[in-house]
Amino acid sequence: MSKLKVGILGATGTVGQRFVQLLSAHPWFEIAYLAASERSAGKPYAEACNWKLSTPMPERVRSMIVEEPEPGTFDGPVVFSGLTGDVAGPVEEAFAKAGYAVVSNASSHRMDPDVPLLIPEINPEHLQLIKPQLERRGWKGFIVTNPNCSTIALCLALAPLERAFGVEKVFVVTMQAVSGAGYPGVPSLDVLGNLIPHIPKEERKIEEETRKIFGRVVGAEGAIEPHPMRLSAQTTRVPVLEGHTETVFVQLREEAPIDEVKRAMREFRALPQELGLPSAPGRPVVVLEAEDRPQPRLDSELEGGMATVVGRVRPCPLTSVKFVLLGHNTIRGAAGAAILNAELLKAQGYVP
Amino acid sequence: MSKLKVGILGATGTVGQRFVQLLSAHPWFEIAYLAASERSAGKPYAEACNWKLSTPMPERVRSMIVEEPEPGTFDGPVVFSGLTGDVAGPVEEAFAKAGYAVVSNASSHRMDPDVPLLIPEINPEHLQLIKPQLERRGWKGFIVTNPNCSTIALCLALAPLERAFGVEKVFVVTMQAVSGAGYPGVPSLDVLGNLIPHIPKEERKIEEETRKIFGRVVGAEGAIEPHPMRLSAQTTRVPVLEGHTETVFVQLREEAPIDEVKRAMREFRALPQELGLPSAPGRPVVVLEAEDRPQPRLDSELEGGMATVVGRVRPCPLTSVKFVLLGHNTIRGAAGAAILNAELLKAQGYVP
Amino acid sequence: MSKLKVGILGATGTVGQRFVQLLSAHPWFEIAYLAASERSAGKPYAEACNWKLSTPMPERVRSMIVEEPEPGTFDGPVVFSGLTGDVAGPVEEAFAKAGYAVVSNASSHRMDPDVPLLIPEINPEHLQLIKPQLERRGWKGFIVTNPNCSTIALCLALAPLERAFGVEKVFVVTMQAVSGAGYPGVPSLDVLGNLIPHIPKEERKIEEETRKIFGRVVGAEGAIEPHPMRLSAQTTRVPVLEGHTETVFVQLREEAPIDEVKRAMREFRALPQELGLPSAPGRPVVVLEAEDRPQPRLDSELEGGMATVVGRVRPCPLTSVKFVLLGHNTIRGAAGAAILNAELLKAQGYVP
Amino acid sequence: MSKLKVGILGATGTVGQRFVQLLSAHPWFEIAYLAASERSAGKPYAEACNWKLSTPMPERVRSMIVEEPEPGTFDGPVVFSGLTGDVAGPVEEAFAKAGYAVVSNASSHRMDPDVPLLIPEINPEHLQLIKPQLERRGWKGFIVTNPNCSTIALCLALAPLERAFGVEKVFVVTMQAVSGAGYPGVPSLDVLGNLIPHIPKEERKIEEETRKIFGRVVGAEGAIEPHPMRLSAQTTRVPVLEGHTETVFVQLREEAPIDEVKRAMREFRALPQELGLPSAPGRPVVVLEAEDRPQPRLDSELEGGMATVVGRVRPCPLTSVKFVLLGHNTIRGAAGAAILNAELLKAQGYVP
Prior knowledge:
4 copies of one chain form a homotetramer. Chain A is built from 12 helices and 13 strands. With about 350 residues, chain A is an alpha/beta fold. Chain A has 2 domains: about 5-145 and about 335-345, NAD(P)-binding Rossmann-like Domain (Rossmann fold, 3-Layer(aba) Sandwich); about 150-330, Dihydrodipicolinate Reductase, domain 2 (2-Layer Sandwich). In chain A, helix 6 (about 150-165) runs parallel beside helix 8 (about 200-215). Chains in contact: A-B, A-C, A-D, B-C, B-D, C-D. Chains A and C meet through helix 7 of A and helix 7 of C.
């Protein structure tokens, strides 16, 4: 089987580089198109991109010429979008209109009522929105998005709880890595030996996206009814490179002993695991028992960075349970999430 | 007026150094006695102590000989204890028995029913416990303690809320500086570019101490009835040098608009301010309006490190209000807290 | 005596903030004019400036309106320039032409043959260049510069060696703080848990500026003949906030025992100390004996950040002596250096 | 071919963990014996060892019981020593006496006249010392050592220069990672946002070991005549996790254009490459052209952490050439070095 040709929008940025890294060894997909801003266009990728990952830039892409993000030059069916929220909107729409399956990590369309905000382990049925999206917008292609990096890590940990016991309330405080802010991102003068208790728009994203993700598809024209769980988030930036840590307090609908809670997390498997999608983590939720884990530097790359790693699961005096979770923010929190979404699209026939 | 002679137990440690620094310029107290472990005893302080503060070691103490912590050699009325929790217990008792006022930062006696766990802005009336303590134990002196570093910062922020509206529930997640673990403390291999989601015993201290601090003195023999508020804490260690940051969600007994909440915090004054105690912060609670503050590196030293700095006060979808607070963990969270306690003891005649 | 009115060009930047901080408490000077880029102009300083120092913004400047850097609006005799090298050139010239004494920290004019590159402890006689500068350029005012931050720290340590023994060769490797790169400066993604072995143009600045600073004024028209010492520098950026550390190997013209070398450094005093200039450090070179000092976090602020702190002075198997030095890069390495220069200008009658 | 059984002394420490990690996937060797201090003895490795690497502890060793380091219980021919210098001496001797080939990373025996201080790319002929060592000491086994972590990285970069042009003088300033100090090692309070310009004994190690490594075997009884090159080192500790950076100035015996210098480095190959030893890096010296590389976080793992990575090779105004180098301190600088030594021993028949 020949590989499916894919493109990357925003290929030179922090998320774009992860797309390049992860897709270069992908069994189903092959990078055939790299697009970035005007400043990079026309240059070989090796020259346009200030590569910041500790694995070397893949040989294959070094000489590929970076193009401006315009539909037409590339004929493959899928483009991944690593664009930042401020520019993604119209570019992604142009590609969707032109017939591409746009698999986006950007925030621009996440809360659009007809755009799936997809976590394949949780809401694969939200792909039903694609049909009404095509119809309503009159496009030949469509847009599918993945959640914000801190939202996705949280949702993976909540999913087994929701399935087994129901989730009513969630308090979450995040300690997020600097790579989540892209490049150049957070100035070292701000964050060295310091922390910043504010990440613009992040708290609202967590509170809103989570309810959409766990929502139900309702009605003929496929709208999402948000899940009734209630959330309150506080987000901070800490001097960590990769891996968002989140401390969580959860009120379950149905109380459960801690062992049951851990077991639900540990045994959680879902559609991507059943389908054997190439990027699906064997264990979507990894539960650690050591009292001082998870730690971002030591545990972010478990399951290839595609799982949420949970630790310190214990009773809470005020809710049902409290715990600490960790997600790799540029793998499962960004590029890896989009790639898993594309794998599900392919497995379910939404792309050829 | 000649100054009151004071001693310092554990004078060479992280907290001990802060005692030395803060007391060297104190208007009421004069360091007359420095004690530390066997290893240091007999040496001049300049040699015994691996000074780690960025202000120079005060000239006066450089040649003072460090002694072993035994009552008798020093005749002043007050000893401050910067001992660690594992050794403080019996040493402090020996000094109290011998007639000293032991003003301790150690955890050993904090939860003893007859020992005040004092924050002068909040519970000065807990000094009533001293009399029954003397009687019950048959000591000539007594022990007064200050809370754990993260507890004290939290309580200062809660105090105006409790006074104005009542506090029912508190969720708190801390991001604590490495100086809170003493020296050598946290290995750099553990915390560089990382965070550790566990500080031994810290969560229980926050949950229990807070209820004692806000408790009422009841009965003839002066026991403390804990406050009925309920707390749930999660604590983490982050690569920050000084300043514990805490994100807090508070359920008030009586709901209040955000402006009222901020005003209560801003206008909060209490006994230490009325008495004009030398170490009392002008504003026990400083409220910042910038959306990305407080930050430990920039804001810890406001009010000389003696205040709790609060920011991002905003409504919470799940409780009444959420905010971020910051306390200087080795000043108001340790040595400075004990010194303010000693000032109150003197102002109220508990020491000559 | 009323204070001399001074202005600050680039007042909102990293160096500009230090100017504001240091000048707000200055006994001779008073801030009367704040200028910055178009983006800031017209706003009160408190609003235009993203204040990053851990002492609060001085009250006096908060409401001062920031102006565009154009001569005329301000009638005081002195402007300090904290502009970056890419924009400083023409702006500083315009102010000098209009009659101001421009005391600059920028690199633009440092190597101009008729512009003093001044360290008051080393080459106060270079102020003789001002007269020919005025004549040749036909200006009513003039420009005086201070060296690059790493150069100045090095030169202060070399000065007593040059005076006592002569300096022939210098190898220097720097480990420079991130504040030296301004704001936003070095991205945290680049420098967290990392170091960057390259600072653009820095090595040439050290090698060239040092020779000019130690050079002789020759000829009627006042040119500087560079000192014949030879230097080789390697510069790196490290995750430190303030304080440039430099490891140095020096070949003296006349060999000297280590004790003599240290004594020469310790006893070094010069014109600013004799004149008692307000910002002159009591000891321009502080020599530490502890084998693990100086350290940027602990020792940068000795002598108010105006000294070079030297440690580990020891024989070198390949040259005469090797040692480690530390300089506060935004005080003596920038704003403080310029202020000391202005003080010398005033003391010697170059400004009214 | 069945694998050779090997043991690890000091198996629970920082270097010991690297041995475990690297040997678990080794094609020739198989871990059959884990020894550590009394405190760990008797426990399964998973319990005895506070694993600090970001790859998981290999399954195979988790249940292996850690023993006290005494010869006899283990019958394999090779033990690797990751012991610290203060305890290694007698333990290693006991094992050598009992007939084991002791392949040591410890400093205790490095400078013994009859013990090879081996870098297989540079001085494989030093293995001639083994015979006289056996005879003189009357042992059944022997000790072979690898150099100190910063020495080995330096020597690999010097080797091609020595071979092609001769090396006369070397100035080196190191910026060393905290992992080089073991665990708990450097306290975070000391090194966060700071650097420490002193590493005990490190400078002498670099200066002395290098001359032995490049020395000649002379005389019938096989002594090493040190190489006449002269070195001067200054060493510092920086807040970096892995990867020692070194800035170097080299005086060559025969001057050479920079391109020749780089070519010599790039094309350098030696015995381990010829023999195809499993841990031999394809390129012992990697030369980077980007002006801001090498960087420890990005480049330490090139060639599996077994190469020295060099950058910024350029002319020096005072010597022939200056450059920056980087070595992975716990792979090529410790465990990996010893493993490559053992591979050479096996390839040359010193072990069965």
